[in-house]
């Protein structure tokens, strides 16, 4: 266990808090222990420190991001292409998203 304590304040709907508290009671666990375990399991393995990365590391990270953006753009274009003609606003929104993703990909590839 760590030598320091972390205090967390949640601001959420009271019914959500009540449901969480009830579920913790049903499971026989304290809310604090559940939140602490969740934070431990979802903490990044290593903090991102851009200054510590060399240019090849940054380039690799950018290439991975470009790959993720390409996957998102493919999914968005598939969604756009499957929209019926009567939903023109949805089509235009999806098309605009594809254009913005393409621009972001171009900018990242141009930078590295």
Write the topology of this structure.
Layout: H1 14-27, H2 31-42, H3 55-81, H4 88-111
Gross morphology: flat
Structural class: mainly alpha
Beta percentage is under 5%
Radius of gyration: 22 Å
User: Unreliable segments (pLDDT under 50, ≥5 consecutive)?
Assistant: none
Taken together, the total number of domains comes to: 2
How is the biggest beta sheet arranged? none
Query: How many strand segments?
Result: 0
**Mean pLDDT, all residues:** 78
Distance, first to last CA: 42 Å
Tally of alpha and pi helices: 4
Helix content: 55-70%
Along the chain, the helix and strand elements come as HHHH
What does this structure look like?
Helix 3 (55-81) runs antiparallel to helix 4. Helices cover 69% and strands 0% of the residues. The protein has 112 residues and is an all-alpha fold. 0% of the residues are buried. The two termini are 42 Å apart. The model has no long low-confidence stretch (mean pLDDT 78). The chain folds into 2 domains: 10-43; 50-111. The chain is flat, with a radius of gyration of 22 Å. The protein is built from 4 helices and no strands.
Structure described in brief:
Helix content is 69%, strand content 0%.
Question: What are the defining features of this structure?
Answer:
112 residues, mainly alpha, 2 domains, 4 helices, 69% helix, flat
């Amino acid at each position: 266990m760590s030598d320091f304590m972390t205090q967390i304040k949640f601001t959420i709907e009271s019914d959500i808090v009540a449901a969480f508290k009830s579920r913790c009671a049903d499971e026989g666990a304290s809310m604090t222990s559940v939140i602490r375990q969740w934070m431990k399991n979802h903490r990044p393995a290593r903090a991102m420190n851009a200054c510590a990365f060399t240019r090849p590391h940054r380039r690799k990270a950018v290439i991975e991001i470009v790959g993720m953006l390409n996957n998102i753009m493919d999914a968005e274009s598939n969604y756009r292409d499957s929209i019926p003609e009567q939903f023109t606003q949805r089509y235009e929104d999806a098309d605009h998203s594809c254009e913005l993703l393409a621009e972001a990909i171009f900018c990242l590839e141009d930078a590295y």
